[in-house]
Design brief:
It is a single chain. By secondary structure, the chain is mostly helical. It contains 8 helices and no strands. α3 runs antiparallel to α4, α3 runs antiparallel to α7 and α7 packs antiparallel against α8. The termini are far apart.
Length: about 200
């Protein structure tokens, strides 16, 4: 189903470690509005989507979110590689280190582990697409917040790229919502349900 290219969607080449920044960016790895949740949300929702064009869109964006997940991993890894025990303690990254060394593990910036309850898949066309649009806006806001804190151009460049993709995804989900609204019929529980209408 997929062809994997052994390169990142946008280059990540960070030359200076910075565990403080890594602790912030890790939220886009496993936080409530991160790339892991996005990819799982879209790739799960595609199965109950009654419109082929929207199913394809969910597959495309869900796959791209996996590429973004990979970019966040590369950023966090490059920001934390070869840290000394002193750097770990000074930065506050020592708590993460105790549990995971410098391996990548999905959690929010606040240290809360990834949980599938952070995203939804309802099987209702309108509900799922509204969830997707909101998710993209929340991810964009998270990237906005990261960019307010990160001034290193080597880190900010891939973050800006990821932020721009969230905007494109929001727009594409808006198009998908229009497709669904134009085709409301018995396939859509929201449009026709005699028990509630």
């Amino acid at each position: 189903m997929w062809n994997y290219e052994k390169r990142l969607q946008f280059p990540v080449k960070i030359t200076q470690t910075n565990p403080e920044i890594a602790q912030v960016i890790i939220s886009q790895y496993g936080g409530p509005d991160g790339e892991l949740a996005a990819s799982m949300r879209y790739l799960a929702q595609r199965y109950t989507m009654p419109y082929n064009a929207v199913t394809g869109l969910l597959t495309d964006i869900g796959t791209e979110e996996l590429a973004h997940f990979e970019m966040i991993c590369a950023i966090v890894y490059q920001l934390t590689r070869n840290l000394t025990p002193e750097q770990l303690k000074e930065s506050g990254f020592d708590k993460y280190y105790v549990d995971h060394t410098l391996a990548l593990w999905p959690q929010s910036a606040g240290g809360i582990p990834f949980n599938a309850n952070q995203f939804q898949s309802k099987g209702d066309v309108i509900t799922d697409l509204m969830e997707d649009m909101a998710a993209e806006q929340k991810a964009r806001t998270t990237y906005d917040n990261i960019l307010r804190l990160v001034k290193d151009p080597e880190v900010a460049a891939p973050i800006r790229f990821l932020r721009a993709r969230e905007i494109v995804h929001f727009q594409r989900f808006g198009e998908a919502l229009r497709i669904a609204q134009e085709n409301l019929d018995s396939k859509n529980f929201y449009a026709f349900n005699p028990e509630f209408d």
